[in-house]
Amino acid sequence: MSSDVRVVNLRSFDDEARAELLCYVVVSQLIACAKTGEWMRTDHLVETMKLWSSANGASPEWLDSVRLGDVSQKLAQTVWAIELLRDTDELSKLFTDGRRLDYRSPIVRGIHDVCAERLLTWRFEGEPRE
C-alpha cells in the first residue's frame, strides 16, 4: 500500500477517522473561502461530509457532524493566516485525485496534526456541567 493512502476502519468512526474527516473538511473550507470569500454553508458542509463518508466507508453520528462542522470553520480561520493556503491552485495540490487528500504533502500532514491535536479535548467538550 502506498504511503499516501490512509485506510479507515470501515466498522467504526474512531478518533483517527474523526481527525481525517476534520482535516478534509478544513481543507474544503479553505477552498470555499479562496473561491468565494466565504466559509462553507451548512448544506455544503453536509455534502462534503457525505462525500468523505462515502469514499471512506465510515460516517459520524449527527452530533459529531454538527460539532465537526463548527470546529472545521474555526480551524480553517486559523489556518487561513498562512497566505499560501489562500490560493485555489495551491489548495488543489493537496488532493491526489480531486477527492482524497494527499498525505504525502507536508501541508496535509500539518493540517491533519492540527486537527488531531484539536480533537484531544473532544470528549470533554459539550458535556453537561454540574
Protein described:
The protein has 130 residues and is mostly helical. The protein is built from 5 helices and no strands. It is 56% helix and 0% strand. The protein has one domain.
Overall radius of gyration: 14 Å
State the helix count: 5
Order of helices and strands: HHHHH
> What quaternary form is this?
single chain
Helix-residue proportion: 55-70%
The fraction of residues assigned to DSSP E strands is: under 5%
Secondary structure class reads: mainly alpha
Number of strands: 0
Main sheet summary? none
CA-CA gap between termini: 48 Å
Number of domains: 1
Mean pLDDT: 84
Question: Brief overview, please?
Answer:
The chain is mostly helical.
What key attributes describe this structure?
5 helices; mainly alpha; 130 residues; globular; 56% helix; 0% strand; single chain
What is the secondary structure topology, with strand pairs?
Blueprint: H1 15-36, H2 42-56, H3 62-79, H4 88-92, H5 106-118
